[in-house]
Amino acid sequence: MFYNNSYKENRLDSELNQLVGSPFSIWHRFIYNVGSKYLKVAEFRNFDFAKPLIEDYFKKIVIELRPKGIVIHFKIQTETFIWAVPYYQLHIYNTDFFSIHAQGKAILIEKEKNFERNQAFLNKLIEFKNMALEPHFEGPNGM
User: Fold this and answer.
1) In the chain, where the domains are located
2) CATH number 3.40.630.30 given to 2-137
3) How far apart, in Å, are the Cα atoms of 122 and each of 9, 24, 47, 57, 62?
C-alpha cells in the first residue's frame, strides 16, 4: 500500500498495523536493529506522485522492518510517503542496483557507501522475509 503521509491520519496507523504488523518494541528495535540508515534511490518505478520529480533532487529512503512486512519511508520535495509491503509480496533483486519490487512498483537503490553500511541490515531483511514465508511463523524468538 502506498500512502501520502504528509498529514498524519489515525486510520493509516491501523491499516499499516493490519497489513505489516505493529512496530517492534523499543527493546526489540535496539536488539534487532529494525531500521536502516538512509539509502540513496536511483529510480522510482510506477509510483504515482502528485508532483513531477525533479532530477536534481536527492532521493533517499529508510526501511523499517515489521513482523509481517516492511515499511519504506521517503520524502519527495515537501511530501512524505510510506510504502507498506507484506513479505509475501516482496521481491528483492541484487544486480547493478539493489531493487525492491512489489505491487507493480519498484525502487532501485544505488550501491554506494550507505549501501555498504546497510549490508548487515539488508541481510537481516532477507532473513526476516525467509522466516516469514516458512510455515508457522511466529517471528524471531516468538515476537
Assistant:
1) 2-137
2) no
3) 29, 17, 22, 25, 11
